[in-house]
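Summary for the funding panel

The consortium committed to producing paired sequence-structure records for every protein in the target list. Below we show the first two records in order, beginning with the earlier of the two.
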Amino acid sequence: MKEITFDELKMMPKDSYRLIDIRDEGLTAYGMIPGAVNIFIDDLENSDKLSDIPKDKKLVFYCEIGRRSREIDDTLECFISRECYSLKEGYVGYIRAGINSDSDKEEKRKKAEESIQKKFHKQLFSPFAKACKTYRLIEEGDRIAVCISGGKDSMLMAKLFQEIKRHRQVEFDLTFLVMDPGYNKENRALIESNAEALGIPITIFESTIFDTVDTIEKSPCYLCARMRRGYLYSKAKELGCNKIALGHHYDDVIETILMGMIHGAQIQTMMPKLHSTNFEGMELIRPLYLVRESDICAWRDYNELHFLQCACHFTDTCTTCHEDGTTSSKRLETKKLIAELKKTNPFIESNIFRSVENVNLDTVIEYKKDGVRHNFLDEY
C-alpha cells in the first residue's frame, strides 16, 4: 500500500479522506487520531463501517508505527475503486509530530507540574505521598532509580518524584532510568521527546532483550518482563542506587488480585515493595500503589500529553508487555469484568484491594509461607 506522511496528510482537505485506525482495543484505549474510525485489521473485509464511507473518500489507514497498515493488501475487494494510503509511522508518528511542533516546551512542563500541585493534587500527589509514607517507600539517604518505560504511568511517577523531592522532608537522590531493550526508532524518539518536554533528565542504556526473546515461542512476554527487571536492577546498582521504582498503580493491583484467582488459582497481590532475591541490598518500590488509573488519564488528557502504551517492537502485532508478563487482552478482560461488577456494587474496587489486607488464616485451607505449604489440618 502507498505511504503518506503526516505532513502530506495535513495538506489534503479534511473532507477528502477518512482515517481508519486498524489497531485493537488495547491500543486504541490509549488514544486515536481525532476523526478516525476504528476498524480492527482482521475485520476490514467484512466491516459495515468501511462500506458506509463514500466511495469518493480516500482511505488512510494507520496502525501503531506504520508497519501493519503498510502491509495491507489493497487489492482486496473492499478496496476496489478506492484510493488507499498507509500513514507513515502511524499513531506514534502523529504523536511525535505534535510534540516536535510544540514551540514552547517550557510552558508544557510548567502546566504539567502546576496541575500536579493544584488541580490534581488530591487525586495524584496525595495518594502518592500516602503510599510512600504508609509503606515506607522513601527513606533517608535513598538513591532511587525511577524506571521509565515511556507510558503515562512511569512518566507521571517521574514528575511526582520531582514534586515530592521539592518538599525536602527526606533527603534522597533520583536517577531517571530508561532501558532501551531494542525499541524501534519511532518509539525511542517518542520517549525522548516526552521526557524533554516534561523536564525529566533521563539516563538511557541499551540491552538486547527484544532480540533474545524474538525466537521464544512459549511465554515470550513473561521472559521479557523478567529480563527487563533484571537489567534495571543491574544498571541501577551500577549507578549506586539501592531502589528501583516501577509505575504500577491501584488498578494494576486489583486486576492482579482478581487475575490470580481467575487464571492462576491463587490469592496473591502486587506488593508495594519487595526485596530483590538476586541483587543484594536492592529493593523494588511501587509509589503509585494508591493512585487510580482514571486520575492518571485525566492528568494526561488535561495536559494534552501522548504516551506509548507499549514500546515493544511487536506493538503492531500484539498488545503485551505488562511488567508481570501478562497479556493486555487478559488485563482488558479483567478491567471490563470489574467495571461490570461495579454497576451493582460501587465498592467492588476497594473491596478487592482490601481483601488481601483482611486475610483470616483460620478460614484458609492451605497457604504458603517462605515456600512451605501449611494446611489447616496441621493444627486442627
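The next record, for a separate protein in the list, is shown here:
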Amino acid sequence: MAKRLRSGYTTGACAAAAAKAAVLGLCGEVGGESVTIPFPDGSRVTFALCRFQAEADGVFLASVVKDAGDDPDVTNGAEIVATAVWLAGKERPPRCVELGEQLLLCAGQGVGMVTKPGLPVAMGEPAINPVPRRMIAAAVAEALVEAGGRGRVVVTISVPGGEALATKTLNARLGIKGGLSILGTTGIVRPVSAEAWTATITASMDVARAAGLDSIVLSTGRTSERAVQELLSLPEEGLAMMGDYLDFSLKAAAAHGFKSIHLAAMWAKAVKAAMGIPQTHVRHGALEAEEAVQLLARLGVEDALLKEMAGVNTARELYERLVTLGRREVVRLVCTEAKAFAERTAGLPVEFYLVDSQGRVVEHV
C-alpha cells in the first residue's frame, strides 16, 4: 500500500501562530510552548513554538518552524518569526500596512515587498497575501482579547534566510523584492504528488461513472469547482478536482466514457489552456505575461489593443486591464480557445467556465 502523504501548514498559518504568540507575550502572558489559532474553515490548530522571548525596547518575539508535510516546499523547515511592540509614542514603521484599528502588519527581514502591479497585494505593501493577512489579524485579535491588551500593536513578520530562499521562486520576476511571499489560502499545505493527484482524479471519475453520470466537472481548484457546482446544481459525485493535471484529466475523462465535460478554471489557468500547455503548474513553465500577450496576437486581437497590453506584469493584470477597457470579448476569445484545446485533447464536447477571484462564473463558452 502506498504511503499516505502528510499535509502541512502554510507560511501564512505559521505567521499567524507566531504573531498571536508574540502579542500574548507582549501582553505579559507566560508559557510559550504552543499557541492555538483559528483557520479560515472554522477549525482551530495548535502550533509548537520555537522561540518565545522578550527582546530589547519593549519588543516580544515568537517563532514557529514551518512544517510543510510531504510537500516539496522551499520554505519547509524555515523559521517564521513575529515580533510585537506597542505603537504608542512611536512613528509609523516602514514596510507596513494597517489591518483594522489595532494592528499594523510589517514585512521584516526575509519578507518581500510588492513592486509591480498584477498581484493580489497592492504595490508598496508587504508581500503577505490576503488570506494570511486575515489569519494574522484574527489571531492577533484573539490574543488581545485573551490577554486583555489595549492599544495599537505593530507585528513584524520575518523569515531568516528568506532572501536566499526567494531566489528559488518566481518572486523577483513578479516584482516581489527583498524576500519571500507569505502565502496560503486555507492554512493547510496539501502535498503535491503526481501519483497521488492522478490516482485521486481517476478515483473521482470511477465514482462518477458508478453513480451513472455521463458528464464530469473538471476544476483547477475549489473556488472554480464550487462556482460551477452552484451554477449547475450538480451532485458531488460529478466533481473531479484536477488541479494542474489538465491533459491527464481530459484524456482520463474520455477513457472513462463520459459524453461531455464541464471545465472550470480561473484566468491564469485558462490562458495556459488556450496556449495548449498540458500541465498548468508553474513548475512546468511559468506563464510569462509577454507570452499571454502573444497569445492575443495569435487570436487576431488588433495592434492597438496589444500595445495597450504591453508591459503587463502578470496574467492577472492582463485580465484586469481587459476588463477595465471593456474588452470582455477578448476574454471570451481566450476562453473559446481554451475550450477548443480541451475538446481536441479529450475528443469530447466541452463547456468552459471562467471563474473570477470572487468565485463567480464570468464567462461560459
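Regarding this second record: The chain has two domains: 8-189, 194-364. The first strand starts at residue 8 and ends at 9.
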